[in-house]
Amino acid sequence: MRNLISINIKNLRKKNKYTQKQLSELLGVAQTTIANYENGIRIPDAEMLQKMADIFEISLDYLLGREERDSNMKGPAKLSEVYETDLENKENLYRNYLTFLLEGKSKAARGLVIECYEKGLPMGFIYFDIFEKALKEIGSLWESGKIDVWQEHFISEVTLDVMREVKAREKRKKRKSHSVIGVTAGPEQHNIGLKMVLDMLEIEGWNTVYLGSNVPVQSLIKAVDTEKPSLVAISVTMEYHLESAKFLIQAIKEEFKDSPPKIIIGGGAFKNNPELWKTTGADKFSSNTDDMLELMEGS
């Protein structure tokens, strides 16, 4: 909520054409205090929040981000207008997105992302500097017991929905000859990172076949035989799924030993040991689209 309050204060001050100094004088505080409020360094107390609500002629709930609009009060017509100042500080966008989702505000989270896209932020930034960073923090919160698994699932599903919308708006490049099959190792359920990479490759003009989780080895072999991909991308988030990844890679190389596709592996399982991927039999480790493009350009 702290991030949303700071965004609201800054947006409302600008909308009402106050300088920080003018607002500080109206509130009886120093200009630096207003700057700290807008940067999220300090949060106003209840009395100060009510004073601001009175000055801006809005409800206190609106200022706190509890409602998108109060029709009886003067103020922004829609929550999306709050997003405009976010682009001035790109590194905080993922935190704002995450804050909305932790508060259960999926509509606001979607609106933030679409506003960013329409303001010119590229799909790659939205995927990897908003979605990926937010999801990594969610994973840490879940591991530490600060959020429940239902919250993790909710946030993942909202993110997938917004990803589809962003991707649908993006213009595809001219089709290339490269193709990729994407799969997670065994029962690995953490597959959004893999989906992001395949989406980016699809926009680059690749033919992509996303298989997701729980794909039997023989089914993967049939998919490779049918699609004849240039690349097979395998994602592993949890270390205990590494054996499943090794088995998949070995099966592909044995079945297609005369002309095997390139095999690239990535995921959170390797974050504490970057060299661990070499034990899997894959051709390269990757955590992003550029690595895949580099692998194919060098082949």
From TrEMBL:
The keyword DNA-binding applies. Gene3D superfamilies: Cobalamin-binding domain, lambda repressor-like DNA-binding domains, Methionine synthase domain. The keyword DNA-binding applies. SUPFAM superfamilies: Cobalamin (vitamin B12)-binding domain, lambda repressor-like DNA-binding domains. PROSITE patterns: B12_BINDING (PS51332), HTH_CROC1 (PS50943). CDD domains: HTH_XRE. Residues 177-299 form the B12-binding domain. SMART domains: HTH_XRE. Residues 9-63 form the HTH cro/C1-type domain. This is Uncharacterized protein. GO terms for molecular function: cobalamin binding; DNA binding; metal ion binding. Keywords: DNA-binding. It comes from Clostridium fungisolvens. Signal peptide: none annotated.
